[in-house]
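TL;DR need structure tokens for one chain.
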Amino acid sequence: MAAAVAMPLAATSLASQATAETVMRVIPHADLKNLDPIWTTAYISRNHGYMIYDTLFAMDESFKPQPQMVDTWTTSDDGLVWTFVLRDGLKFHDGAPVTGEDVVASLTRWGARDGMGQQLFGVIDTLEAPDAKTVVMTLKEPYGLVLESIGKISSNVPFIMPKRIAETDPFEQISEYIGSGPFVFQADEWVPGSTVVYTKFADYVPRDEPVSAAAGGKIAKVDKVIWQYFPDATTAMNALMAGEVDYYEAPAPDLAPILASNPDITVEVNDPLGSIGFARFNHTLPPFDDADVRRAAIMAMKQEDYLAAGIGDSAYWKTCYSVYPCGTPLENDAGSDLMATGDTEAAKAALAKTGYDGTPVVIMQPTDISVLSAFSLVTAEKLRDAGFTVKLEAMDWSTLTSRRALRDPVGEGGWNMFHTWWIGADVIDPMSIAFSGSPDKGWFGWAEDAELETARKAFSQASSLEEKKAAATKVQERLWAIGASGELGQFFTPVAYRNNVKGLIKSPVQFFWNMSVE
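>> reply
TL;DR here they are.
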């Protein structure tokens, strides 16, 4: 037997460092409770989806769709037949290869829930997988948003799942969470309200191109990503200041100056389009089953008051009365006088004409999301001043995202209003599910307006920018005419991270591939 040789302390230290597990600790913007990013539009579920799933195409930083899981694709001369060939090396976390049948099932389920997906599937004649690596989409008529639809960057994202999972009813949540993305979800370590753990997928084969927003080479540069949820913003800030976590996705804007004063922390805005605040009505229940009542409520909403209360520092917000983000091509002012009213006396007069009978307005208030909690309080005050009877019901955001899917009467779990935001990239055009006028397939609140749906379809069929702008303007007119939602202004939430974090990706959505901790 050979004699044991003592290893020098320095060598022992180097060997330990060489094998040490690298971990990035992240404070997410909300608790992850719903794990199905097709069933819900909640951004925390979307972010979870990006960790473990992949997409056929992905948006780069210029919002142009680039191939992701697709290697090559062709389009017939008449624009009706689209053929996609998957790239080599695609494998699910359970070891099974990704096939065309997985893609067909995944897109079909997504198309039942997503606004752009619904429009796309409205013109799809057949979607088939003739062999393991090929998907053929045959359209009834030419459609100008095929790649933009299957490569959309935010909710709902057309993530690819195994066929057996994707065949779950789109209005029921999946119960198995296996993707083919750069990280693996560790279900046995998931603690709702506290911790989510992802580990590097060793068999993931990234693309060769440089990363650009959601597109390019997704390289997992850490062995593990841990989401550590803090319901209290100050506690979260202190954890970042103390070095207990590395990255804070959405610190409250009023805490940003404190964080920025720490030389070990960087605070910056990562999304040039920002987010749009929404006050969403339930169109199916009294009193907001009456468009005139909804419009009266909107008249009471003054954007400056919401933004000052929820965001604070005016450097991080601006008023915007277009339903599309200000500064984007489809911004317009059609019908926007309604949202710009901002006068509770005018709202009171308008409400009196409706014959409102005092039916209580139940507002779901997510107390763990400071911006939305503040928005809820502002609405409650303004609606009371305008003559509404208002009841606030406090809950956490994850509970709200489950409850908002209920269509039951208020006394049986239903609701009248909730507040949220959409990132600008999600509401940049009429294809957003937020603008749907379909009560069966539309977003929570279930607006119903055939004229709105006709205008949205016209946008999807438009062949020139002028035609698109005309259709988008018509969509906006109808949204204000029916009082679909109150729009509460445009704001820009900063991110904060310790200076040991490298490789931050500029994007409306925060991705954790290509990021490292040193």
